[in-house]
Amino acid sequence: MREARSKTKPVLATVAALAGVSAPTVSKVINGRDDVAESTRARVQAALAELGYESPMQRRARSTGPAMVDLVIDGSATQYSMEILTGILDYAATEDVDVVVGSVTPAKLHRANHEEWAQRMVESGRKGLILVTSEMTTQQLDSFANRNIPVVVIDPLNPPRHGYTSVGATNWAGGKAATEHLISLGHQRIAFLGGPRAAECSVARLHGYLAGLMGHGISSRPEYVLVGEFSKAFGLAGARELLDLAEPPTAIFAGCDATALGVLEEVRHRGLRVPDDLSLVGFDGTPLTEQTLPRLTSVAQPLQEMGRAALRAVLRLAQGEMLDSSHMELATELVIRDSTAPPRTNHVPAGSDL
Amino acid sequence: MREARSKTKPVLATVAALAGVSAPTVSKVINGRDDVAESTRARVQAALAELGYESPMQRRARSTGPAMVDLVIDGSATQYSMEILTGILDYAATEDVDVVVGSVTPAKLHRANHEEWAQRMVESGRKGLILVTSEMTTQQLDSFANRNIPVVVIDPLNPPRHGYTSVGATNWAGGKAATEHLISLGHQRIAFLGGPRAAECSVARLHGYLAGLMGHGISSRPEYVLVGEFSKAFGLAGARELLDLAEPPTAIFAGCDATALGVLEEVRHRGLRVPDDLSLVGFDGTPLTEQTLPRLTSVAQPLQEMGRAALRAVLRLAQGEMLDSSHMELATELVIRDSTAPPRTNHVPAGSDL
DNA sequence: CTGAAAGCGCTTACAG
DNA sequence: CTGAAAGCGCTTACAG
Lengths: 354, 354
Fold this sequence. Notes:
Chains A, B: One of its GO terms (molecular function) is transcription cis-regulatory region binding. Chains A, B: Residues 10-64 form the HTH lacI-type domain. Chains A, B: InterPro entries: HTH_LacI (IPR000843), LacI/GalR-like_sensor (IPR046335), Lambda_DNA-bd_dom_sf (IPR010982), Peripla_BP_I (IPR028082). 2 copies of one chain form a homodimer. With 354 residues, chain A is of the alpha/beta class. Chain A has 14 helices and 12 strands. In chain A, helix 10 (200-215) links the parallel strand 6 (190-194) and strand 7. The A-B interface holds A 57, 60-61, 64-65, 68, 73, 77, 79, 82-83, 85-86, 89-90, 92-93, 98-104, 108, 120, 123-124, 261, 268, 288, 291-293 and B 57, 60-61, 64-65, 68, 77, 79, 82-83, 85-86, 89-90, 92-93, 98-104, 108, 120, 123-124, 261, 268, 288, 291-293. Strand 2 (97-104) of chain A pairs antiparallel with strand 2 (97-104) of chain B.
């Protein structure tokens, strides 16, 4: 549809001929002048699209220097985003691609005028857009789709949807592995401290956790499942709530490493010890896991790989290639460190046959 | 010197007139053709510079969309660089500036063709360049200076020099504060584990340490001063060496938090405890300091502020403003946490009157 | 609203 | 190596 009619690059005169107008009129349309009849404007715009006309500026921008890709990271600069960024930058360096990084809070992202944003990207010759843990409405995504700007989301908050490509990790499998590890150590009272209810990845981890329990005939207890946010603060608050229960859990599976850190602090604060009094598993596998005491057992996401994969996908899409799938999940891996151990035997309910 | 002669924007013909050549000749010089005599080329280049000629592309690039600034971060993505990046991105967002991030290893940076790089920056309309803990030779810096591209270095390895602006922290004062804190706790045998001998900031910290000792009449011992690199590995190795001494130190001042982390691990490995058996002070004040056990007393650098200050400086320079100073040092601050305490009394040599 | 004509700024092809 | 001449692609000023 949008293919050029002939091989020779279309110039203003070509467009004019196709639209049946003069060159000056095309020039006016391109430059947004208002002294053009609506019907003429429409005809010219159709011709511009059909021929795939690019101004000399655009052509130059496209051919000069390395390709540029935009990257938007959720405002909070965590070790998680740093790992992803590292992966993207590494791959960008080998491909000679420039990465334009913006730090945008979710609120700001939502307020942004996506039409203008996409238009500016086209004008600056940007090849595509990578979003880290952000979301856009379908309409917003359309602003980019209409201009043929590929959008790839890493760890999307929304479930996969048409119009963009996403890269994630096997969150469900990771949640299940974490839970089964705890069960295999003898735990029965296992709690889950998840991220935002709206975050697809957190929901998947929760369901992995539930599947792990169910697969071993352990029924889930509502009071053992708290969802809130991916933060240390939530770990502190969540641990407080869980440990105050009449029958507190003997193990906690935290939805991310930062949350686990909060749990660790609250446990320590109470004079309890990990893993003696409580086993703890995190999620993400950030460098943090090696820095805590005890070192944190965690489900590692291949964050750098995910960054690389996202950039690779954007560059392919920008070249008009088709991707095998619009959503890819890289494998998580449970890394057992020092924060998990069998529960104290006196905590095992009488009658348990584990 | 480099101001335009007249107010009207210089076009190719203006340059030709000033250089005493024809327009086609100027065109050739601009486009890097080689069929131009060296002397002619030089004359044209002088005229281009004198008039501040910009091609239509450049002019457009300058007026379209947000300003772009290049950022090069030493390959290793540490919490240190993440903090600086956050500061830069925050400020960039408020100023509507795009930051083009590259991750370049020092070796790669050294090999790069700076002339080409600078030329490409001009052509892409980049406003300036921020380097994080990197260095360039004077000649390399000239490639940018000649094209009026401001370069600002954060925490430069080289001492301040002409041709670029640098942003650092009060390393000497920080080193002195750390040392005096340990002395005030009663320590006399204080060791220093510094960064690369070539790194200006590390040298300043070392001299702050020496000044702290000297000011309190404590003579420095060569075996207590080890310099190597800013890494955890060096902390491990350095601690091993120091603790194996016949008379080991009672306190270690580590040149950065990562090194302190290594020390902590080695101390723990030997079954010793911080701060009971050994006091430990880090440098940088990264989030790491809150994540260790015990939490790490550290000299905090205002890393985010440094990032902001660097971007502010680049943008000002790009607008032709003069800076008050080509080197600015932001204040460090000793943050006392849990890794420092008075030395065990039996370690104080007999006869000490502390 | 539209477009013939003139113009702008840069580049190309080529004669010397 | 240099530049007069021709050309390119877009824009402007203005007559209708």
